[in-house]
Amino acid sequence: MSTGTILWIVAAIVVVVIVVGIIIAAARKAAEKKRRRQRAEADRMRTEAASAEPVARDHEVHAAERRARADKAQAEADAQAAEADLRAAESEQLATEADRLRGEAAGRSQAADESRSDRARRLERADEIDPDVDDSSTNRRH
After folding, report:
1. C-alpha 81: how far from its chain's center?
2. How far apart are the first and last CA of the chain?
3. What is the chain's percent helix, strand, coil content, to nearest 5?
4. Rounded to whole angstroms, how far apart are CA atoms 43 and 34?
5. How far is CA 14 from the centre of its chain?
6. Measured on CA atoms in the order 23, 25, 26, 31, is the torsion positive or negative?
7. Are 123 and 141 in contact (CB under 8 A)?
8. Distance CA 75, CA 38 (A)
9. What are phi and psi of 131, to 5 degrees?
10. Helix, strand, or coil (residue 142)
11. pLDDT digits (tens, 9 = 90+) for 59-109
12. Are residues 127 and 133 in contact, defined by beta-carbon separation less than 8 angstroms?
């Protein structure tokens, strides 16, 4: 091999090494630039997340207040329902008592009617056996 050929081979190897070095350096620079962008993006996202925390706490407080109001309203509704149930039970008792009293009244009314009827029969019978009562008279005692 001649010296010229060897120089060309060495020069080619040096050029290849330089090109590979440039490619590696460019790749590292691009990777470093990408990492810097990612760090900056991560910092931005952390800042946004940190600034959103008070808003989230505010929403949490409002949600807790609304839950408390809802629980209070439910308790009031339950109390009113219990009171309504109690009043319905009292109404049912009063209706039952009214039915019982109507039954008693009907029984006493029937007893009074029977008593009047019995009285009328006794008066008629008394009139029938009384010699002083005129049977043809329309004015009988009743």
Report:
1. 15
2. 167
3. 90, 0, 10
4. 14
5. 80
6. positive
7. yes
8. 53
9. -70, -15
10. coil
11. 999 999 999 999 999 999 999 999 999 999 999 999 999 999 999 999 999
12. yes
